[in-house]
Specification:
single chain; 266 residues; alpha/beta; Rossmann fold; 2 domains; six-stranded mixed β-sheet; five-stranded parallel β-sheet; 36% helix; 18% strand
């Protein structure tokens, strides 16, 4: 049986050609669809909203953090694809005892491209994966930094409590790709909080004095009404609602992201 190394550096034995795949991460589910694996994918999470019709056609195995382990057992997968950050460690450890589980661990664009290549190889879609990666690389190579390169940005993922994107995250890496400086990506390690997705106070936001504030559409669904909330806190900042999928989905959606970024920063 072939052995593959996942992004957590684990050896995973996988059947010659997986026929019953469960995807536990929305962005990787979309990738499997774009690789042409409609027949092979049998299970997804309730948050796997692309492609939309799969929510009606595939087995729903719970949420990314709360999997229905009994449902997974009942549909007998021969491959499960998850992610270190998005899935529960306890659930994954249980599944690893029974099934081949290939895990991604992605903090930057290079690791996303590596994941796409690996999953394409595992699923015998090597050519599809190569073409997709070439497309993503080409699009990002053509992405020019905006005129306001190095403007300082705060990227919010949650409201009440206020949570932002910190360093060593995929979103932070994409902010760098479009020429922005994340005000919460450095100098916060000494605080008693996670510096990947730190919880901050209004005073800390005001002290950081970002030029731009991005309010992500996910995981918290920021709306236009929240723009005024942040305008009252940072009256001189440019505040925008942004498409969280374009900033945080690290699968095939990356081929579309640079075009979105060009529009956003125009």
């Amino acid at each position: 049986m072939p052995v593959f190394i996942d992004q957590m550096l684990r050896k995973v034995e996988i059947n010659t050609k997986p026929q019953r795949i469960i995807s536990l991460v929305p962005s990787q589910t979309e990738l499997l669809f774009d690789l042409g694996l409609d027949n092979e994918v049998i299970g997804i999470t309730k948050f796997c909203i692309h492609p939309k019709h799969w929510l009606k056609e595939k087995n729903i195995v719970g949420g990314t953090k709360q999997l229905n382990l009994n449902k997974i057992v009942s549909i007998k997968p021969d491959l499960i694809i998850g992610n270190k950050e998005e899935n529960s460690k306890a659930d994954i450890e249980i599944l690893m005892q029974q099934y081949p589980v290939w895990m991604s661990d992605i903090n930057n664009l290079a690791q996303a491209l590596q994941m796409i290549e690996s999953i394409a190889t595992i699923t015998h879609k090597t050519q599809h994966g190569m073409l997709l990666n070439n497309k993503i690389k080409e699009e990002f190579n053509h992405l020019q930094h905006p005129i306001h390169t190095k403007k300082r940005v705060a990227y919010f993922i949650w409201n009440e409590p206020l949570m932002v994107v910190g360093e060593n995250t995929f979103i932070n890496n994409l902010l760098e790709k479009i020429g922005l400086v994340n005000v919460f990506a450095a100098d916060i390690k000494s605080k008693q909080i996670s510096y990947r997705y730190p919880q901050i106070t209004v005073a800390e936001l005001q002290a950081a004095s970002p030029d731009i504030i991005y309010l992500s559409s996910e995981p918290f669904p920021f709306k236009d009404k929240h723009v005024q909330q942040f305008k009252a806190i940072c009256p001189y900042a440019e505040i925008k609602i942004v498409d969280g999928e374009m900033f945080s989905w690290y699968g095939s959606r990356l081929a579309k992201a640079p075009t979105y970024f060009k529009t956003l920063i125009a």
